[in-house]
């Protein structure tokens, strides 16, 4: 049964700019700080942020079983814990309140003043307290490119890659929302041909074009989530820039995987777009050969057609789009990732985040990192101002955007936009 | 200046059994559920648990700047956030209240009834909400053993090992306290000589003898913690069993490190022993050659002499000690681990946990895992009941204990004791 929130004919009484990522069909969730310095959970239509805490206090959700303070929190974790049925009831109701034919809020100026904010009046926060963050490595094109560069071009994929949605644990504490500048990391690297490592600023700071999904409480320790049930535990998705220091990574990552090369910062877009909102944009994911083991076998369309772009903007300059990719290229689906992650009984909680891994497409202009786009720096990119980039330079702003489009409905994610600052300087004592 | 809580002459009016891990010099912190089903923060002397929430409500901490509810919480995170000065004031005060010459609580039967519990009356909980968990790999003997077995016996240590306290991110959600049984994981493995992986129960479930330290809020994102300040941000230590499925690990871990082989469960002892309590047991850590890079260079004694033991007890049988090791063997110190972890600006929060990595000593009877003790299963161990073990079998209970001893004072950690259950069986529909 199609979700009524997805009806492409639906219109809202709020103004929605052409090509907005946030029509009434989107209804994402986020957390923001209001002009009165109050933190609340909210949604967004067009360029208006909706204070769900205030809406709830005014009685607009009175027929939905919600605790009084469910939206008056600084994270979405508790709301996400309420489960899929509640998410749907709330989105249905928001869709109803802002429907062009519904006058209950539209004609109540006092309530509108309390509930609605322009985007300039608010400051977006991290939407969830991320308990655990896992990053996958699920783009075949990306894994192949990395294998060609660093291992054997003829056998670029490692033997386990086609059998396992390979993943590793990342660092939750370093995840920041769009708009938070991050610092170039210091670290150990091994210069080419040397045996002794040196210490200094990373010279190869890179973005990774990724998306990530946010889970609800899914299981108890020791019990797996079957692949066909997995999507029920996915609340929604965000854009994700998995900042990487390639030179630090190269020296540190054998045998236990990436560590300081990744955990200096990771950036996400602040609005979580629900899986329900993405429902119309399902596509078949790439055919999997060999057939995965039974616990990873899925039916139906488990991919999503999400257009992705990355731009680099030098300080004071113009942004240049450096790649255009798509989430539909992912070889392993989110359902498979979650089923694999829990097949051993690993516990998944509300607010956990799982990254896709770098999303590279089949052609060089669709690669999801500077490492691949410039082929390890061998083919620098030229930006619109004529400057060239092998990797990301200090004061560059990297912005990822993403949206789906079908039947004249565009569901977008906004952006994750991050400036890279120079290394931290210890103050002289 | 020596801490007065460490005075070896100090005696308490509470009974302390001979060889107890918890004399008045220890004063660890934990979280427990009382007979009235109330969760509180507590400490322990001998076989008595002390309800710090109740002590505080009764006014015993009135001269220390503490919020009213600081101990009436289900985790220690906020108390740990209060910082080292506060931890010391509280431990000093507890040491004073329970001093043999102090009658204020000793002679107040009503208060004693409220504040004291026997260990049988309470149920220990996880002491902190672990935001991020990192596991290091800092025993040279362990890294060498693994290198000999799986790589090149002549070049067992990887090139980065002597320069970097190698570490990786683990899964916080699967960490459980002593006494919580864990399940044998299901997963993918590659049988020897085969090219296609199979799915089934792990056949090589192992313990890893580790210790872990718990941090306080240490920095802001982007700023490193200097090695000489690092210990100020370490609240205390616990015993840690980093359960591992060797066959799953072997197939999955290249190139991004261990994942499902580790995150099915990790077990910790419930009492956090403070670094202050461990102060008398400092020893020099092993000499480091080559000299580490300047950001890892430390002065003074940064190792700790902590005796460690692991036993295996079959269902209904007797426990057999299978190894005796010591924390002093660690090549990289906790201070170096924390300095390295933050050199790139990675944020460390209150309640984060960092594991040592398997603690193996120089001789085969000091190895910290079945993998090493049985040399990949080639030399099975014989238990007291005559049965043999290559790895851990269903219904075995693995127990790690640890203590320091000097000047007739024994400071111990209690135990982390965990039964391994068979794989989870999906209920038939």
From TrEMBL, chains A, B:
Domain of life: Bacteria
Residues that coordinate or bind Ca(2+): 135, 208, 210, 242
Cofactor(s) it depends on: Ca(2+); Mg(2+)
Gene3D superfamilies: Fumarylacetoacetase, N-terminal domain (2.30.30.230), Fumarylacetoacetase-like, C-terminal domain (3.90.850.10)
Record EC number: 3.7.1.2
Residues engaged in binding Mg(2+): 242, 262, 266
Metabolic or biological pathway: Amino-acid degradation; L-phenylalanine degradation; acetoacetate and fumarate from L-phenylalanine: step 6/6
Residue stretches making up the Fumarylacetoacetase-like C-terminal domain: 134-402
Residues engaged in binding substrate: 137, 151, 249, 253, 358
An annotated Gene Ontology molecular function: fumarylacetoacetase activity
Keyword tags: Calcium, Hydrolase, Magnesium, Metal-binding, Phenylalanine catabolism, Tyrosine catabolism
GTP-binding found in the keyword field: no
Residue intervals of the Fumarylacetoacetase N-terminal domain: 25-127
Residues annotated as the enzyme's active site: 142 (proton acceptor)
Keyword hit for Hydrolase: yes
Stretches that traverse the bilayer: none
Pfam annotation, one family: FAA_hydrolase
Any one GO biological process: L-tyrosine catabolic process
PANTHER family the UniProt entry points to: FUMARYLACETOACETASE (PTHR43069:SF2)
Family that this chain belongs to: Belongs to the FAH family.
Name of the protein: fumarylacetoacetase
Record organism: Arenibacter palladensis
């Amino acid at each position: 049964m199609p979700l009524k929130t997805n009806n492409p004919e639906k219109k809202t009484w709020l103004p929605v700019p052409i090509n907005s990522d946030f029509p009434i069909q989107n209804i994402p969730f986020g957390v923001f700080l209001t002009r009165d310095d109050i933190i609340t959970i909210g949604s967004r239509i067009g360029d208006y942020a909706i204070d769900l805490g205030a809406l709830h206090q005014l009685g607009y959700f009175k027929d939905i079983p919600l605790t009084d303070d469910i939206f008056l929190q600084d994270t979405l974790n508790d709301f996400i814990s309420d489960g899929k049925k509640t998410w749907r009831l709330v989105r249905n109701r928001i869709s109803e309140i802002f429907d062009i034919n519904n006058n209950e809020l539209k004609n109540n100026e006092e309530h509108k003043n309390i509930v609605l904010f322009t985007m300039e009046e608010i400051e977006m926060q991290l939407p969830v307290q991320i308990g655990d963050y896992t990053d996958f490595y699920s783009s075949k094109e990306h894994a192949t490119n990395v294998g060609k560069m660093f291992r054997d071009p003829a056998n670029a994929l490692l033997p386990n890659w086609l059998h396992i949605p390979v993943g590793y644990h990342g660092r939750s504490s370093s995840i920041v929302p769009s708009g938070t500048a991050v610092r170039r990391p210091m670290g150990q690297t091994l210069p080419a041909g040397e045996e002794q490592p040196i210490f200094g600023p990373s010279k190869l700071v890179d973005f990774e074009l990724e998306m990530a999904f946010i889970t609800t409480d899914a299981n108890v320790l020791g019990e797996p989530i079957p692949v066909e049930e997995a999507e029920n535990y996915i609340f929604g998705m965000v854009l994700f820039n998995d900042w990487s220091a390639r030179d630090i990574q190269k020296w540190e990552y054998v045998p236990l995987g990436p560590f300081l090369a990744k955990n200096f910062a990771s950036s996400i877009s602040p609005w979580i777009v629900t899986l329900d909102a993405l429902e119309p944009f399902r596509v078949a994911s790439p055919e999997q050969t060999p057939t995965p083991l039974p616990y990873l076998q899925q039916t139906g369309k488990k991919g999503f057609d999400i257009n992705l772009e990355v731009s680099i903007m030098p300080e004071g300059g113009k942004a240049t789009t450096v790649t255009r990719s798509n989430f539909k290229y992912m070889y392993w689906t989110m359902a498979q990732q979650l089923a694999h992650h829990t097949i051993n009984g690993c516990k998944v909680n509300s607010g956990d985040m799982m990254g896709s891994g770098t999303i590279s497409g089949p052609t060089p202009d669709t690669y999801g990192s500077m490492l691949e786009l410039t082929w390890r720096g061998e083919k620098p990119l030229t930006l619109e101002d004529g400057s060239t980039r092998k990797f990301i330079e200090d004061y560059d702003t990297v912005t990822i955007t993403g949206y789906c489009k079908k039947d004249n409905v565009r569901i977008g994610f906004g952006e994750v936009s991050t400036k890279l600052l120079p290394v931290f300087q210890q103050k002289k004592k």
